[in-house]
Each structure stands twice: as C-alpha cells, then as structure tokens.
Protein: NmrA-domain-containing protein
Organism: Aureobasidium pullulans
Amino acid sequence: MFTRSTSVAKPLAGPLELLQTFPPAATCSKSPLFAPLFSSKEKNGSSKSGHGRHITCGGLPDIPGIMPLMMPTKTVVTINSTGRQTASFVRVASAVGWRVRAQVRTCDGLVAEELAALPNVEIVEGDLCQPKADLIPFLNHLFEGAKLAFINTTHWGDEVAIGKACADAAKRAGVTHYIYSSMPDHSVYNPDWRPLPLWSQKFTIENYVRQLGIPATFTYTGIYNNNFTSLPYPLFRMELQEDGSFVWQAPFHPHDPLPWLDAEHDVGPALLQIFKMGPNAWKGQRVTLAFERLSPIQACVKFSRGVGRPVKYIHGPIDIEVSIPSGYREHLESLQETLGEKRAPYFGPLEYPQEARSLWEGYRSLEEYAREVFPDEEAANGLTWMDDDKEFPEYAESNEDPDEDRDESSVSSTTNITPSWTPGMRTPFNHPEADAHNFFVGSC
C-alpha cells in the first residue's frame, strides 16, 4: 500500500490514485525454505529454489514522489490452510490487513488459488509429513518473525508429531498468541466413555502446548453445517427419497443437544476477535465455536425450513456405504458408542453457544445454510434434485418446532449476515487436504 510524499506538489488523480489503495496480490512459486522472504524475485514477483514453493507479493511500478507506507505489522502463521476452518480465517485476516503466511500441501486447487489471490497472503507449499530432519527447518522458517498462529492439524500423517513440531517451532520463534483447534478426549471425563481417536489426538497435542508454556487458546468446533450431503458419505448423509424429501440417520439421541457451526462463514470472524482481545483474555482457555444448540429433531426442522422439503430424522446406526480410511471407521465406531449409545455430551462439560455468539454475532444458522448454501454445494457435486418440479407448499413457511421451547438458546437473537456465494469460497469434499481416497473428514 502506498501514499504520496509530502514533497509532491500536485495531488495524483485518476486510476493511479485508486491503485494506491489496494495491496498487491500474491502468486504461487517454489521454495519451502523461504529465507530471505523477498529475495531473488523474478519478474512475476516470485522466488524460486529447488526445495518447494512459496508466495511473495508482487509490487507496483516505481512512481516518483510516492513512498510506501509500512505494511501490516501483524503476521499470523496457518497450516493446512485450504481446510474449512483455516481458509475462513485466512480470508478474514487478509481482509483486515494482516499478513498471513499460509502453509498448504499443494498450491493446486480452487481454494489454494483463491487464497493466493488475496492481499497480504503468502502461500507456502510444503508437506508436513516430510521426515523430521526436513520438517523442523521448514517450520522454523514458516514461523520466523511471526507473533500469531492458528494451527489446525489433520489426520494426515502422524498428527501428534506434527502438532508437537508446530508448537516447538512457535515457541522458538517467540509467538505471543497461539490458537490451536483442539477437541475433547471423553475418556478424561468418564472412564466408561471410549475416546474418539481423531479427537483424542488433538487433545494430546493441546496438553503438549500447555506444557510448553506458550500463550495459547484452544478452540473446540461444533458439527460443520457443510458436513451434510446427499452423497453416500457416512454420518451426515441427507438421503434423498423418491418423493423428494430427505432422511438423516445418525446414532445421536433425538433429543440430545448438539453444537452446530458454519465453519467457512464463522470460524474466521471468531478467531479474529480472539486474537484482537489478546492472549491475556484467553490464555489457557477452551473456547467452544458453536453458534447453535440443536437436537437432531430441531436440526431437521430447521433444515426442512431451509430447503423447503420434509426432512426426517431416524435414530439408528451409522451406515457406511463407501470405502473410508480405517482410522475414520474406528472414529465413527467410537462416536456411535460414546455420543450415541452412552449419550456423552459432545464437548464434555464445556458449554455453548453463548461464548461463540459473544465473539461473533453475524453467524450463519443451519436454516440459512440449508436455504442458501446447501443447494449450491449439491449442484457442485453434480446433483440436480433442486431443479425438479416437486413442490412442498407446507414446508415453504416456518413449521412449528416441537423441541424449540425446550431450549431457547437455539433461537438466534441476532441478525445473521450471509455474503453472496462465489466460486472457490468453500472447501469441496475432493480437495488437497483430503486423504488418499479424496475423503474429507470435517468436525465429527
């Protein structure tokens, strides 16, 4: 971003003046070890070496009498940046002028390309599953000079080892506020509750971060609205019926409350507020990111209002009709036992949704998601049910929710903000952070 020097006699006018107000966009280039960050630039603004890829920011042409302002002073590191949580935060951080150094496994794909085009964003391509001898220097350079970090590890590779390595690198770099996306280990709260493997790994990493003494906050995310699909994926399949209605079958008790979150819409603003409030406000605390508290029956009622079709909930076992990773299968078996049969609370003893709503009032509800986003996501997956001529006039208006009086917190008291949809603003099931079978595991 540039401004005119006081020595300029005449004000600049026209397109040049407008050009000054926009930071340069970023482009993808090779090098995982990117020190110095802005050296050896080619004409397109990128730096190359034989080790991998990273982004640098392109510059404006030299303009007599124009001197640059200082760039944004806050630099935040993210990993697995094309995932739903992290991509949401990268978009918001970029929008408010923060520098983002965003690690991705590959620069290919719609989300990576979208993030690379944002101002003040450096996309750093590198595999977190690389050998430790290579991973440590990679992470050292990734965190160099950064004071903030949002870390969401995935089940790719050895998640615990990667999580610990990221925390170690952040400590060496002097990061002053480290937000880690964690989840509960239910066996800690009750020995009869079987831990969910993909969650307990995150809990192990959380405990390691606490032992390091980094100023840290731990976010616990609810069920992603985006998990719903009519494709034959387990647990959150909205199975399309011949009459045009939907059926959701899951092991959750029909009246047990569940936390809901539109990850791509709401994680970013909430994280930004946590960072802005500073490490002292949230040091060592667990923050539940869930903006609605809905039982399965309530969720189906709200979903039916959104799609304008009947949605029925069936309390039953998880149907697995497609090939899934063995680790995720084990996770689903544990979930069915712990959250389903034994009815353990989703977050353990943690409360919601008031905490998340205090951070961000403009959340997107499940009903809004079903109305405004779900049909587009289904169409992107090649489905056409939304174009059929079936009509359900009785579902065009709000239906009475039989459970709504039981939980007033399920009713939003705020004005929801829903931005218009643009391509690449969502993480598809088939994307670079998925596993070898292109199966993406969201929250749950």
